[in-house]
Amino acid sequence: MRLPGGGSLPFLQFLKRLYVAQDDHAAFDTAAQLSYYLLLSLFPLLFVLTALLAYLPLGDAQVQLIIRMRSLMPPEAMKLVEVRLTSLLSAQHPRLLGLGVVFALWAASCGVDAARKALNLAYDVKESRPFWRTQLLAIVATVLSSVFVLLVVSVLIASGVAGHWLASRLDIDHAFTLGLGVIRWPLTAALMTLGVAVGFHLLPDVRQRFAFMLPGAVVGTLAWLGASWAFTQYVKHFGRYDVTYGAIGGVVVLLTWLYISGFIFVIGAEINAILEHAAVDGKRDGARDEGEGPPPPSQRPSFLPPGAVKNARVAARAPASV
């Protein structure tokens, strides 16, 4: 397979490196940690989104947000989210001033900060930026992601209204509705890929070209859409979470969906790191910039990979302590 920065990597060799990387970095455990922070940050983020949506000059922007989320989340998980959204929407203009929004932004940024740590681990670098800078980065990234969602929802609503108006004038309203249904998912996937690639680019403590971010973002987005659909079908037809877990069945479904999402995000980052480290013009494993030499093994996270404490194969690959 051809690499973005020049050179090639046999596909079987790529799969082997990906397996070793997820094993060394304990990707399943990292995804579990990430899913916990995502759960904590989900509802504060929804508060910020719904509060901002209330001020947009689009009558059904909040309803459109709910509709978009329904198509991506399992029904049991969506019920929990929708109950909370309904209570937020009962206030026409939720208050954005005061400590409430500050806490909401901080809580929502916890998920982003957990993603930053996972990306640093994928590139085998320690965080060198001060604490205040990483926290500010997490909050800014949360705000930017909220604005991005608002823009996407606004564009979809405005373009849909304008398109239906023009199609009705041209007497092709039925054809436009069919075409809109066909293009909705490719457009959603493209916008999600862009958002994920920007996150891969901005969050880790490395300098990188945006081209190296696209492979993992594309694979991650497609895998996430497919996994979300498959998990939704499983919950609908086979999963009996309400019987096993009772009243908290919906919470377990939501947390499992977030866990799957977190794991795919981590794998997407590992894919980018593997491809860039193997590319002719890419960074070396453990380096923060192109042309920069990596630090000694004892100063890198891989000196004792997280997976070494639970997997003998990983512990055997870890450098001997000095």
Question: What is the string of SSEs from the N terminus onward?
Answer: HHHHHHHHHHH
Tally the helices. Answer: 11
Radius of gyration: 21 Å
Helical proportion, percent range: 55-70%
Q: How many domains make up the 3D coordinates?
A: 1
- Biggest β-sheet, characterized? none
Strand content: under 5%
Number of beta strands: 0
> Which outline best applies?
globular
- Low-confidence residue ranges: none
Write a structural description:
The protein has one domain (11-317). It has helices at residues 11-24, 27-53, 61-70, 75-89, 99-122, 131-170, 173-202, 214-237, 241-245, 249-278, 312-317. The model has no long low-confidence stretch (mean pLDDT 79). The protein has 322 residues and is mainly alpha-helical.
Features:
single chain; 322 residues; mainly alpha; 11 helices; 70% helix
Quickly describe the structure.
With 322 residues, the chain is mainly α.
Chain-wise SSE layout:
Blueprint: H1 11-24, H2 27-53, H3 61-70, H4 75-89, H5 99-122, H6 131-170, H7 173-202, H8 214-237, H9 241-245, H10 249-278, H11 312-317
Helix pairs in contact: 1-10, 2-4, 2-5, 2-6, 2-10, 3-4, 4-10, 5-6, 5-10, 6-7, 7-8, 8-10
